[in-house]
Amino acid sequence: MNRSMTRLAGLLAGAAVAVTVAMPTLAAPTRPQTIGDPVVAEASTDTGVARCAADWVTARANPTVANLQAVGYCEIDRRLTTLDRLRGLVSAAGVLTDAHKTTLGGILNGATSGLTALRAHIGADVTVVALRTDIRKIYTDYRVYVLDARQVRLVRGDDRVGAAADRLDQATSRLADAIARAQAKGKDVTAAQGHLDAMTAAISKARNEVAGDADAVLAQTPAAWNTGTAKPILDAARASISAAASDLRTAVSEARAVLAALR
Amino acid sequence: MPTTSRAAILALGGAVLLLALMSAGCARRGQAADAGSTPSSVSTSVAAEVTPPTTLGPTVSAPAATPVPTPDLSAVDGLIKDIDTEAGADASAGADEGTTP
User: Fold this and answer.
1) Contact B71 A161 (CB under 8 A)
2) What does residue A9 show for φ and ψ, rounded to 5 degrees?
3) Contact, A255 vs B73, CB < 8 A?
4) In angstroms, what separates the C-alpha of A208 from chain B's closest C-alpha?
5) Is A2's CB within 8 Å of B73's CB?
6) In b/e form, how buried is each residue of A14-50, taking b as 16+ CB within 10 angstroms?
7) Angle in degrees, 0-180, between the axes of helices A65-92 and A98-124, rounded to the nearest 10
């Protein structure tokens, strides 16, 4: 009897020690494997130049039909993935105007259709010469990264400037009302009014910075890129967006100064 | 009572006590994990009217501070941050084009 109780005591004590050791592991939440994990992201969403580097090395060392087809497929597939991602940005934006959504959707869908057809063409090519020509078209006829991706980013930026300016315009109305009420009660509102005027000027400056840029950006084509006329327009649009952001920050700062002056 | 029986009982009691303590510790950890943080609230400041105390002689009172409805500037701050993000993404967008063969 005593021996049994001793054994049982030993078993229970051992179980308690085992639970003590295992508890930190059991308590730690398991990390779900999501697309955000570096390894998963690298495998499924890598659209960078490096994705096709190995195929290029193989094709340059041994330019056969099969090796060149592999290059063509890889370059087109990574572009198709990018176009899918860009479509997501267009539809999920929330601040793109309907007109810009439609135009960008047309650009991206056109590129997707064209590249899909070109992929089939590459699959049907039987000579190295024909393949070299078609692979070159992936770049020259579909400027997915230097043009399409930039068009999406720049127009989103322009429309966000417009949305921010609209919100600040609404704020100026409320602040003007507050100034009028304060003045009616005998408060000196000179400083507040000065800040409100500065705020209004900054909002107007922000709008002017990007006026017409979205349409100019959307009008660019792969052919325009190839002749060198598109890049300066895109670069200028980005500079305007940055300048507009600075003006909007000034407007927000002036709004806060109005509030402080009225307290 | 024989010494060996007493030792066995003590050993058994000690093991049970240890197990009970471990269970209590686990329960407390579970409660702590379940408790979420209370969301912080953003307070908007409203200036309060100040009425000076009554005194003999002429009364001079300062103009009452005006309660100001605070516009939602945090939403604009968010949009400006997004604008910066788009400009940054544009700056690196062309890097994946590669060289035309």
Assistant:
1) no
2) -60, -45
3) yes
4) 16
5) no
6) eebeebeeeeeeeeeeeeeeeeeeeeeeeeeeebebe
7) 170
State pTM to two decimals.
0.70
Cβ contacts of A170 on chain B, cutoff 8 Å:
71
Nearest-CB residue to B66 (from A9, A49, A185): A185
Residue A80 and residue A98: Cα distance in Å, rounded? 24
A20-33 average pLDDT score: 40
Rounded to an integer, what distance in angstroms lies between the CA atom of residue A231 and that of residue A233? 5
Distance between CA atoms of A262 and A164, rounded to whole angstroms?
24
Which residue of A20, A135, A175 is in closest CB contact with B71? A175
ipTM of the assembly? Answer: 0.75
Interface contact A171-B73, CB threshold 8 A: yes
Q: Are B19 and A5 inside 8 Å of each other by CB? A: no
For A47-91, how does the pLDDT look when each residue is reduced to its tens digit (9 = 90+)? 899 999 999 999 999 999 999 999 999 999 999 999 999 999 999
B100 contacts on A by Cβ (under 8 Å): 136, 139-140
Q: Could you give the count of Cα atoms lying within 13 Å of A171 in the half-sphere of its Cβ?
A: 29
> Taking CB atoms and an 8 Å limit, are B66 and A15 in contact across chains?
no
Instruction: State residue A124 phi and psi, 5-degree precision.
Output: -95, -10
CA gap A199, A255 in Å, rounded: 6
CA distance B62 to B48: 13
> Could you tell me the two tokens for B69?
């409805």
In the DSSP assignment, the letter for residue A228 is: T
Which residues of chain A lie closer than 8 angstroms to B86, CB-CB?
A: 153-154, 156-157, 160, 241
CA gap A100, A45 in Å, rounded: 26
Up-side HSE of residue B51: CA atoms within 13 Å toward CB? 2
